[in-house]
Amino acid sequence: MTHAPTRFPDGFLWGASTAAHQIEGNNTNSDWWVKEHSADSTIEEPSLDACDSYHRWDQDMDLLAELGFTDYRFSIEWARIEPAQGHFSRAELAHYRRMVDGAVARGLRPMVTLHHFTVPQWFEERGGWVADGAVELFTRYAEATATVIAEDVPYVCTINEPNMIAVMAGAAKAGNIGFPPAGLPTPDKETTLAVIAAHHAAVKAVKGINPDIRVGWTVANQVYQALPGAEDATAAYRRPREDVFIEAARGDDWIGVQSYTRTRIGAQGPIPAPEDAERTLTQWEYYPAAIGYALRHTAELVGDVPLIVTENGIATADDTRRVDYYTGALSAVAAALDDAINVDGYLAWSALDNYEWGSFQPTFGLIAVDPQTFERTAKPSAVWLGGLGRTRELPRIAA
Q: What is the pLDDT of residues 7-41, one digit of tens each?
């Protein structure tokens, strides 16, 4: 039998997400650009022009609006806005304000992320997040974005995936290159405290610009699943990598939930996915149900703080599997709503096939981008998912 369709609530955010460095191109003043081009770099390939969205953002928004999406999450680039310490570019602030205006004109609600993994190179050179005055410098940057976010921006994300920032800092301190086969490195405690302090300060700064802006941040949820007898080990493993960052958002207007796959935990730690498991282009286990577990775990920790799925998707060259993945993921979101979990929206990762932090090969995008001409082409998955934005109805999976 086939159940009646699920209808997502009116006003439910329905969109897609991107990050500036991954789509704009030529972000030359950022720390990542320097990493990509250093002589001893281990990064597979540099971002270069990326998707040229710095110049073609209007094409991206045109497509999203035409497809039926109502929301667009994009980030603004600190390294462009403050290319040298204390120097704020009026031209770049005006550029990002034009993006906000462009989104509104197309009927897209903008969610603006202030920090999505990249920082200005000068900030990195002075010691990054753990240097004296780092929190104050980030707060000053947040205050400087007033001309971008003061009007027509209903949602602001301060920092994307702060737990991954702390994890990467921990890996760097340990001298590790890359991540283990399963699980994540131990987060750096000093970085953890610094980004939490920066978030809380930035929330106050944004509220000072406009108290009506709903402010939060996003956490990368790894969906840690305990094998029998490993419940305590799982909770201990998860806490520094995830829970402390979720709990830091208890007083926020919303929290972003981002999940792609699961991580199973045994008594001795993370267990790799089975050899016969289907894997995506990132080599993650294909597991559409992950987002449902992530929403439920986050709700357990923060209570009735509104949740927004700010990233969820799959890296695949088979667009039919993308539709299948989204169908499973959205069914899990719908089940969470049915159980009265406070979910306010769903934003897919990613709007575009883009630069995935070292390689263009993992294609997460709903929209394909020609690397030579930058022509945008909506995939069938984009037409399908955008169409749900118009109907707000997800057909139930036949049972």
A: 899 999 999 999 999 999 999 999 999 999 999 99
- Measured in residues, the chain has a length of 399
Q: In what order do the strands lie in the sheet with 269-271?
A: 224-226, 263-266, 269-271
Cβ atoms of 347 and 16 closer than 8 Å: yes
Tell me the C-alpha distance between 224 and 263, whole Å: 5
What DSSP designation does 23 have?
H
In whole angstroms, give the CA distance from residue 216 to residue 147: 19
Q: Hunting for tokens 């760097």 — which residue is that?
A: 172
pTM of the model: 0.97
Report the 10 Å Cβ neighbour count for 66. Answer: 13
CA angle 16/17/22 to nearest 5° reads 140
Domain ranges of the chain: 6-390
CB 164 within 8 A of CB 220: yes
Domain 6-390 has CATH 3.40.50.1370: no
